[in-house]
Amino acid sequence: VQLQASGGGLVQPGGSLRLSCAASGFTFSNNYMYWLRQAPGKGREWVSSINPAGIITYYADPVKGRFTISRDNAKNTPYLQMNSLKSEDTALYYCAKDRLGATRGQGTLVTVSS
């Protein structure tokens, strides 16, 4: 299993970013996909999930209404659209094929700061 997130960067509060994750080594279209994050000095936190068909989605309360998870099964890629970003969203973001993140790959750093 290989999962490599990208799309992070420095953004001002209120801004937006779209994260992507290149997935390989497993049958992507058969699996739930998950986004997680880990802020500096804190534990790993589940952010969002999407079912294999891309129809059913779940969000952690802190991001509900601001983040949107999606996927393109033809491209083996999950996405995380992040809007109205806050300083507390600053973290290393990972995608994984399990909710705890045991299968997470390389993350992408999101820094929200003015």
* Uncertain stretches: none
Assembly type: single chain
Please indicate the percent range of residues in DSSP E strands (runs of 2 or more). Answer: over 45%
Radius of gyration: 13 Å
**Tally of DSSP β-strands:** 10
Task: Walk me through this protein's architecture.
- With 114 residues, this protein is mostly beta strands.
- The model has no long low-confidence stretch (mean pLDDT 96).
- The chain contains no helices and ten strands.
Write the layout of secondary structure elements.
Blueprint: E1 2-6, E2 9-11, E3 17-24, E4 33-38, E5 44-50, E6 57-59, E7 67-72, E8 77-82, E9 91-96, E10 108-112
Parallel strand pairs: 2-10
Antiparallel strand pairs: 1-3, 3-8, 4-5, 4-9, 5-6, 7-8, 9-10
Keywords:
six-stranded mixed beta sheet; 10 strands; four-stranded antiparallel beta sheet
Concise synopsis of the structure shown:
This protein is mostly beta strands and 114 residues long. It has strands at residues 2-6, 9-11, 17-24, 33-38, 44-50, 57-59, 67-72, 77-82, 91-96, 108-112.
